[in-house]
C-alpha cells in the first residue's frame, strides 16, 4: 500500500504539514498561523492509505450503504420504491455489465470580454443491452474531464426501458410495446413497434441509443432540427422513458392481492390514516 | 486548508510500537474515550446522556487538535446516542473539549505567513467574467462557501414499474398522495429540505402508487429492522486510528493522477478531434450548458459530492473557523450565527465535521450502529478554559441527516 504521508498526530488550526516529519516521534497537531512543526505529540507514524486504483467504494448515502450491504439487490427495487439515486457507484454495483459510449464531443464557445472561450461538450450514453439506458451531457474545459463527467451523469440517469412485441408474443420481447414519442427542444422522436427482423430503422444517433437499450427492431420518425445532437439524443431518451409510463391494455386488469398481516393490523388503526387499500377482490375502493 | 481524516489501522495494527489506547493525544474512533486523567471520565458521565431519550451515549471519536498560540494540549470527544429514534437529531450528540496546560510547548516563531497578499482588485477586475462558467467541477472557480439558499427540487417522478412487479400495479388514489405530501412538510427541523415536486407535462401523475409504497413498507420491515438495543451492555464501536492529511495536497495529487489516467483512456478512444473546424459551425448550434442536468435534482448534495470526490473515504473534515461542507440545505440561522458558547457566551465557530463515510465504520456485530448524514461541531472561538476548576467543557453539535432519510422512515 502506498503511504500517503499522513500522520497520526493531531488536527489543528492550519494545515502546516505535520506529515513532513513523519518519523520518530512525529509531529503533533498543526498550528495556526505558523509552521506546523509543533510539539511532538501524537503518533507521527505515517498512515497507510491505499493507492488510487485499489480503492473500494465507500458509500456516502444511505441508499449506497444499503446497496453495498446487499439489502437492495436489483435496480428494479430502487425504481419500485422511487428512491433517488445520487451515487454513480450504485449503478456500477447493480449493473456490472454496463457499457458506455461517447456519442459526440463538440466544442462550444462563449463570448467573454477577453475573447472566446471554448469548452468541450461530451454526450455519453450508457446501457447494458437488457433494458437499461442512461444519457449524460457534460461540458468542461478538457475533453477527458468532460467525458468522465458525462459518464457519471449518464449513470445517474439510468432508466428502465420496456420492450414488447409487434405481433405474436413468441420469444423474447424485441421492440417497443407501443408507439411512444419524446421531445426535447425542437426535436420530436417517435418510436414505432416493428416486426422481428426489421432491425433499427433510424438515424445513427437514436440507433446507438436503441441498441444499447436492447431494442432490436424499431421504426422511427423524427421531426425538428435533428442536427442538434444533444436534443436528438435527449428526445430519444425521453421516448424510451415513456415506455414504462404508458398504460397498455395488458395492465388494465386490476390486481387482486391477499391481505398481508401487516395490512390487517393497519386496518384496525384505520382512523389515523385514510389509506385506501384493495384486498381480496373488494370492489369498494375510491 | 482543510485537514482530512481517514481510517487508519485498527487497534494493535502492524506497527505496534506506540499502540496505546489510553493515549489521549491521539485521534481515533471507536473503543473507549481516553481522557487526560481519570477523574474526568467519572465526572463527565453525568453529561453523557442523550438529550432525547436520556440513555447513555456511546463514544464515537476523539480528535487531538491543539490550537496555535495556546500552550495547551487540546482534544475533542464526541458521543452519540445509539437509539435509532434518536439518530439524526442534534440533541442526541455531545461534544466534550478537554485541555491541559503544557509548559513544554515552545511558542513557534511568529512566522508571518499571513493570507497571501491581497491582489488589488483593479488588476483582475477586467476579466472578472472570464471564468464565470458556473461550473465547480474543475475546482478553479471559487465556490461560495456560504450555504446558498438553493431549493432542493425533485424535478420529476416518472412512475416506473419494473417488468417483474407489473402484476402489482394499482390504480392511483389521489388522497393517498395528499397524505404523504402533508407529512413530508411536517418534517423535523433537522431535515431542512425543501422538497418541491414539480410535474412535467409528460408525467402528469406525481403519485407513488399504493402497491409500490406497500411493497416498500414491507421491504423496510424486513431489511431495516433496527436491532434490539442492549444499552445496558457497554458496546463500543470498533477501534481505528485516524490518519490526517492536508486537503490541498490530496486534491492536487488526485487531479494529477486523474489527468494521467484520462489521457491514457483518451488514446484508446481513438481519434476524437479536439479542434475540428467543421464541427465549430455545427457546434455553434449547440448551446453551452451551464449546470449539469442530473436526474435526482439535489444540487446541494451534488456540490457536496464534487467537493469530496478526490477523497471520498474521508471521515473527518477539520477546518478551524472555516466553513462546514453542508450535505443538505441548511438554514443560516441554525448554523454559526446562532451558536453561542455555553460557558462564556462568546460566539462559536466551526471546527470540524464528521463525514458520512464514517457510518460504514460504526458497526456493532456487523450491523450499522449509528447513522447520520454529517455532524458539525462548533466550538468556542475564544477557547475558554478555566485552568483551576475545569475538567471539561461541552460544545455545540449540529447534525444533518442523509438527504433521503425521510424516504426511509
From TrEMBL, chain A:
Biased composition (Basic residues): 39-48
One GO cellular component, as annotated: cytosolic small ribosomal subunit
Gene Ontology molecular-function annotations: RNA binding; structural constituent of ribosome
Residue span(s) of domain S5 DRBM: 98-161
Signal peptide: none
Region of interest called Disordered, as start-end residue ranges on this chain: 1-55
Keyword vocabulary terms for this entry: Ribonucleoprotein, Ribosomal protein
Compositionally biased spans, kind Gly residues: 7-19
GO biological process: translation
Domain of life from the UniProt record: Eukaryota
InterPro entries to which the protein is assigned, alphabetical: Ribosomal_Su5_D2-typ_SF, Ribosomal_uS5, Ribosomal_uS5_C, Ribosomal_uS5_euk/arc, Ribosomal_uS5_N, Ribosomal_uS5_N_CS, Ribsml_uS5_D2-typ_fold_subgr
Record field: compositional bias (Basic and acidic residues): 20-38
Family under the similarity heading: Belongs to the universal ribosomal protein uS5 family.
PANTHER family: 40S RIBOSOMAL PROTEIN S2 (PTHR13718:SF4), RIBOSOMAL S SUBUNIT (PTHR13718)
Name of the featured protein: Small ribosomal subunit protein uS5
Organism: Adineta steineri
TrEMBL record, chain B:
Species of the source: Adineta steineri
GO BP of this protein: apoptotic process
Compositionally biased spans, kind Acidic residues: 130-139
Gene Ontology cellular-component terms listed: cytoplasm
A Pfam family recorded for this sequence: PDCD2_C
Signal peptide boundaries: none
Biased composition annotated in UniProt, kind: Low complexity: 140-153
Name under which the protein is recorded: Programmed cell death protein 2 C-terminal domain-containing protein
InterPro entries documented for this protein: PDCD2-like_regulator, PDCD2_C
Chain segments carrying region Disordered: 130-208
PANTHER family, A to Z: PROGRAMMED CELL DEATH PROTEIN 2-LIKE
Annotated ranges, domain Programmed cell death protein 2 C-terminal: 298-400
